[in-house]
Amino acid sequence: MGKPEKKGRALTTVVASNPTNIETLLRVENLDILFGTAKQHVVAVDGVSFKINTGETLAIVGESGCGKTVTSLSIMGLIPCPPGIIDNGSIQFNGKDLLHLKMEEMRKVRGNDIAMIFQEPMTSLNPVLTVGLQMSEAMMAHKGISRKEARKRAIEMLKLVQIPEPEKRMEQYPHQLSGGMRQRVMIGTALSCEPKILIADEPTTALDVTVQAQILDLMNDIKAKLDTSILFITHDLGVVAEIADRVLVMYAGRTIEEALVTELYENPIHPYTEGLLRAIPRLDQYLSADNSVKEALKQMPGIVPSIYKKIEGCSFAPRCPYARKQCGQERPVMKEVVPGHRAACWKPEW
């Protein structure tokens, strides 16, 4: 199974090669993250496991609050403690468990081997420092180069992310740039040290659709040029179809389905994934030729379970149309239903 290629509004399947030298760069196993105090805590991430291979894009999707960003912050070693506690699990990168590295060792990894594009560039960039200074700092710290060399490299990165007049932008402050240009600066900064893994936390959320498309095309181009693996976090399934090779679906802090992007769209297995795909607006389905509404937009009944309530069985059981007694009592484990497609569900037909 290949990955989707954009042709207008339709998705077509491209036959991809099957390389035998695939290397796993990052492996997360049974990750548990809690927030709170000694008297009371909530589970933000509950037993999450996944891997990222060389040169691939893994998308993590799910509703707000499902644990996507917290998972990515744990990889970067940015979970504040207190109140955050990584209670269990491992994050293996280059043969080392990132959770057991000392602070100084983690600083050498963060921004150098693994870089992150944060969700809102205006709050991530320092408003009182120029763009050039902020981009140069990371390279000077990780690569040990001079300020002059770092500036030259920063200008090259601004050209790579297609910012016009890069020399001029180097002397400007974040507020003098548009939202799309600030996001490109963030991408350029993250790529300046040539990381092996780039984590993009909803990098297109605050952008209009035109700029969003430009950023997605840019990230695909950079991935092809630099062979950088990408962990892409989003709640937009349309974006996933544009950029991802594999998809991991999360719900209430748990992983519930994982598959190649084309396989997930063509054959969703978990009822939550089915509901997400049904909720995507489609003009041919909901509007007639005269623009009158043919049917109402489909939605999932119920709400996400409270983070203060311990979940005994399947976290989606209260909203699931297929739920039975076992679903509320026993937690399903991720298992391979078809080759390369895993899900956590107690569906009888399995």
A few lines on this structure:
The chain is an alpha/beta fold and 350 residues long. 32% of the residues lie in helices and 25% in strands.
Q: Mean pLDDT, rounded to whole units?
A: 86
Distance between the termini: 22 Å
Coarse morphology: globular
- Please report the total strand number as a whole number: 14
Largest sheet, described in full?
8 strands, mixed
Task: Label the CATH architecture of the domain at 23-106 and 201-208 and 227-350.
Answer: 3-Layer(aba) Sandwich
CA-based gyration radius: 21 Å
The SSE order reads EEEEEHEEHEHHHHHEHEHEEHHHHEE
The fold-level CATH name of the domain at 23-106 and 201-208 and 227-350 is: Rossmann fold
Count of alpha/pi helices: 13
Widest beta sheet: strand line-up: 8-9-10-5-11-12-14-13
Structural class: alpha/beta
Uncertain segments: 1-20
- Strand fraction equals 25-35%
User: What is the level 1 CATH name of the domain at 23-106 and 201-208 and 227-350?
Assistant: Alpha Beta
Helix content: 25-40%
CATH superfamily heading of the domain at 23-106 and 201-208 and 227-350: P-loop containing nucleotide triphosphate hydrolases
